# Entry
Amino acid sequence: MKCRKCGHEAVINMRQHKLALCSEHFLEWVPEQTQRFIEKYRMFTPDERILVAVSGGKDSLSLWDVLLRLGYKADGLYIGLGIDGGVDYSNQSHEMCVKFLENFRSQISSVNVTADDGPQTVNTQYLIPKLHVVDIAKLYGETIPDVAARTTRGRGKPCSVCGLVKRHVMNRVARDGGYDVLATGHNLDDEVAVLFGNALTWNAGYLLRQAPMLPADKPGLARKVKPFCRLYERESAAYALVRGIDYIYDECPFAEGSTSIAHKEILNQMEKDSPGTKLQFYLSFLRAREQGLFAEQAAHVELNACEKCGQPTSAPGLCAFCRLWERRITKDE
Amino acid sequence: MKCRKCGHEAVINMRQHKLALCSEHFLEWVPEQTQRFIEKYRMFTPDERILVAVSGGKDSLSLWDVLLRLGYKADGLYIGLGIDGGVDYSNQSHEMCVKFLENFRSQISSVNVTADDGPQTVNTQYLIPKLHVVDIAKLYGETIPDVAARTTRGRGKPCSVCGLVKRHVMNRVARDGGYDVLATGHNLDDEVAVLFGNALTWNAGYLLRQAPMLPADKPGLARKVKPFCRLYERESAAYALVRGIDYIYDECPFAEGSTSIAHKEILNQMEKDSPGTKLQFYLSFLRAREQGLFAEQAAHVELNACEKCGQPTSAPGLCAFCRLWERRITKDE
# Structure
């Protein structure tokens, strides 16, 4: 298989795009595509400050890398969840993020920045990114598995609590740090698995809020973007590999047996039988919504500020996050 | 496995309902359920005249049987498509319908009719059903495979043409015969496969028109109902088997390799992993629509009467059905 651009040996063949590329042109293609999605879905502008949620995995580190190479002002946020799972999962993940940043900083002088009007010199002070680290156990006194163990959320699995805590912390750090936007590394496979699950249950609230860009339409909520939402998981993995980004290979130990992994397997089968199925599923969903398939009021929820943390919540009084820790205090007393 | 109602040996175990039944109680359960769906989705009343589209398969013959046993005035409509496929498919199908009717008529005196207020005597003149037969080749000069072969519809497969022709003929016979409603034997597996396909492409028109009951909201359109829409395929097959209804076992020879069969396989896998998946998928869809998930105007289409047959069409001039035969005439001239 030859690269379509230069004829050299290809490192990846993207059947759904009928496009094979060599390593050099693939490393160009991913940022080009990302820039296209950033503009198409009006995610952010070069003036805005971006907080990238990094987990130490291929998607979020590749995203951070791409955003920095595109010249965006992107800092990282790592949330230490205190998950061990026999593989020292959280510590390993943290280390990957730190290592990425060190490598990136050491390379910074040689980075070619591509902007709208071609390669150019960029004020490098913006390009030296910061990594925020929030350690849940240190800050709130318990790890995620510990909190999950004493709540009824998530039927014995910490995933629901974990999602709740991460959303809260990401939003808080974005708000307190004065960031314009919060970026996550969700790839197409992630988005499609979630969409598939939401279509199976026809959950109006979830269906209407699944988007490449969610505006900050409530006071205290950060704008949320997913610049890799149209990139297949294997493309994001290939980017990390070819770019030489070291990342944590293990899935979260709690992910095993999850519904979204079961859905991913089904979708992988469908994609194999008919390349492009996932992309078409996602794009036709975005198009249908754009064209008014859904009644916007179907997902309307009244939000008010949490009495304790001030973040928006649909519950009266405390938000779900604050109630999570409130219960602990009550129990300890 | 024992019958939940009487403790005798069960003939079927419906995992999604956690319900096992013996043959006697299963033969009671299917009509009870069907009656429940007829009322719930306001399909028709005992006064109305029903035209049941029968194909000779398990679903439509079981449906006809159940409707007659419930005391409804239900005539059959068989459409001869002229499909051979090496198994004399259409002729065999026709024969099954004729045989069903003969058997039913011979049993008619011993049929126990269940009505709202328990078993009762019913004026049996209503219970002697008629079978309308429309032979496409005799009436229009060509079989379905022949028509399909000279059109661009359906990419080499007659399924699209077949659907178009059947919809037209069913609607015409219902209208001309003064029927209040047209009933088809679509089971839950059929409905779910279609819904799955429509969700994968997010087709607003199709999503909004998929329902257990479609009202006759345009002049010249018959009300359409699917009384078996919540019955699994294996339940409808079991009903035919236990009731002793002979039906054509072969799938239509052209169905092989179809998208809906591929979707059915995926859904079967999901159902196996988690019994009830299909039913939940369908019911949550109906519930979400009821609760206003979709913007009703998303599927709004202006219809006008076809200049030739008078049936509603979105096209100006002739409807797609009349254009199908128009082209033949032009070609022959």
